[in-house]
Structure formats: C-alpha cells, structure tokens
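Hi all, long-time lurker, first post. I run a small reading group and we've been trying to get comfortable going from sequence to structure in the token notation. Rather than ask abstract questions, I figured I'd post a concrete chain and ask someone more experienced to write out its structure so we can walk through it together at our next meeting. Sequence below, copied exactly:
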Amino acid sequence: MKKSVGVRILLFLLISGVVGLFTFIGSIATLLFGVQKFYMPFLITVALVFLFFVFNGFFPLLKGQVLRRTVYGCIIIAILAIAVHEVISAYDRSIPTIGNGDVDLFEYQPFAEDTKAVKLDEPAIFKMEGELPIMDGATALYPIYAAFAQATYPEKGYDVYASEVMSNTTQVAYDSLISGEVDIIFAAAPSKAQINRAKNRGVELELTPIGIEAFVFFVNSKNEVSDLTLDQIKDIYAGNITNWKEVGGSNDSIRAFQRPADSGSQTALENLMGDTPIMEAPSEDIVNLMGGIIEETAAYKNYKNAIGYTFRFFSNEMVQNNAIRHLAIDGVVPTVETIKSGEYPITSEFYVVTAGSQNPNIEPFIEWILSEQGQFIIEETGYVSINPSEN
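-- Answer (accepted) --
Happy to help. Here is the structure in token form:
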C-alpha cells in the first residue's frame, strides 16, 4: 500500500533533518582538522545529492537505467574529487616552507658544546653580577644575543624557549616586554600596533640601535627573474603587478606571500610600503583548538611563482635553503659589503629594546653591546655593526 503524499513528505523531512545534523557535525570536524576548504563544501554537496536520491525514492523523477547511471556517476565524481584533492594537498605539503620551524636555535645556545654562537678571544670587559636580565627576541637575532650572553652571563644552561636567554619570535617578545615578563628584547622596530599596545599599558619603549641588516626578497631558484626595482617590489605588494611577465619573467601569476602581523619582517614590509596599501595576502586557515578558527597569513611557501621576504642573515645562514634565490634590488645584490657601503637600498637597524625595567645590569649591558667587543660579536655573527667604519 502506497504511503500518502503527506506521510512521504514527513518522512523526507525527518530524513533531511538527520542528514543535516550529521552534515553539521561533519563540518565541525573539518574545521577542527583544518580541512574545511575542500571537505566542508564536499560534505554539503554529498548531503544534497543524497537527499535528492531520497526524495527521488518518495517521488520518483529518475527510474531504471537512468537512475542507476546517475548514482554510479555521482559516486565516481565524488571519488575522483577526493583523489584529486588529496594528490594536490600532498604536493602542497611537500613544498618547503620558509619559517621559524626550519631553524634549530639550539645550534646557537650559549655555553653549549659545539655552539655556533660567536666567542670572544678575550674575557668580556663587562660581566653580569646579581639578578640577570631576562632576554627574549626575534628568531633571526638569537645568534647575536646568545653570543652576548655567552660573553657576559654566568656559565650554565639557558633553554632556548624558557630561560633568562630565550627566543620566542618578535611578536611574543614585544608582548612579553610590554607586560613586564622580560627585561630586554632584541628585535626590529615595533609595529604601530605594538607601539599602541605599549602606550595603552603606560609603557614607554626605548630603542637602542645596535646593528644593521638587509631586508631581502626572494623567489624560487628556477624563477627567471633575478632583479627587481624598488618600485616594482612596491607595485607587486600593492597588487598593481600580478604577473611575472610584467617584470621580465614567464607568463605566470605572482603569489606574493606575507608574514603574520607584528612579526619583524611584516613590520619591515609595512615600513617599506609607507602610505601605499598592502594587498590582501594568500592565506591559510589555521586551527587553534583553544582559540577556535583563526585566519593567519601564510608562511612563505616555495612555489615556483611565489615571492617572499625576510632578513638576509636569517635566510643565508640560519635557513640555508638552496631552492630560493635572493633578488637584486635596483641592480644591487644584498651582501655585507653592499649593506656597509649603502648601495643596497633596503636596510634597517635592529635594536635592543627596553621598557622601564629596574634591573641595574641593563644600562651597563647596553653600553657593552655598543662597545668594540659587542660590535665585534655582531660583525662576526654575520650582521653589520651600527658603526661599521670603526670595525
């Protein structure tokens, strides 16, 4: 006996509700695992197709061979879609990422056996006594201040991420300094947001320049482009130049990657761009189970059509990725020599930054950093002294 139209509609609505519930749960799961870009719309599509066939069971639209072919076709399309997505994802994951995770900072740990941190040939003229200032800073500058600690701090173990001499990235270091958790940090100049956070906390950031470094742009080593002008760099990051053929390369779109807000390199890009707005960056959904879903600028990935940026020493000495190549800017390659001479057009000072700590060791420590011994460590590490003519 055939069910009435009303009963069939009711059953279809009940099944739709159950399917909708499971689709919602599945969508939440895709968010938690960070695969929502593909699998969320995939699940919704599968649910809708499934409901179509349920509806067709109650109110036949397709019958016989047509129905069977439609079912088989949908299954094949779903399997192919998953297979293609997973192959592309596997390829994407295989592409190296230039980020802090590529660097083993323990290689520069002070007092560690076979440390890469520079050692003085003579005892330091300043030695820490009493309460040790707690230091933090940028990943790229850890080799410098680890060597400072090795020269002036008491010999003992200093954990890279939790000690008096640690490195937790520029963003975290500024936050810790502003909150009073650390006494001194080594970093690039603060971003506008970091300056505002300090003002809101009633904290005055005091910046003392201690060295100079080049801000560099790099591409895949197979990219035909080896030289860009400063104006071309700005046009790329403003979104005015979008294809490599516009700057002498192949006919391929430009993936202009950026770094997270408040990182040292992102602040350097913002300073370079000045009043020119920076275009929206390629991004990745990053899942943080404690804080929910956040949108964060993607770390530079070495796609053949990508361009990224960092600081010269970090790229040359700490990452040492032969699959990327630094670009010459206005015909000048970034080297220690071109930084010292002023030929390379994009350089910036890096700083020791304090925020009112009462630790009595800080002032003499900064004076020592600016001394011949401190500046020697900066030069020997591979950076440029704040007074290169005197070294």
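A couple of things your group might point at:
The CA atoms of residues 112 and 157 lie 8 Å apart.
The chain has twelve helices and 14 strands.
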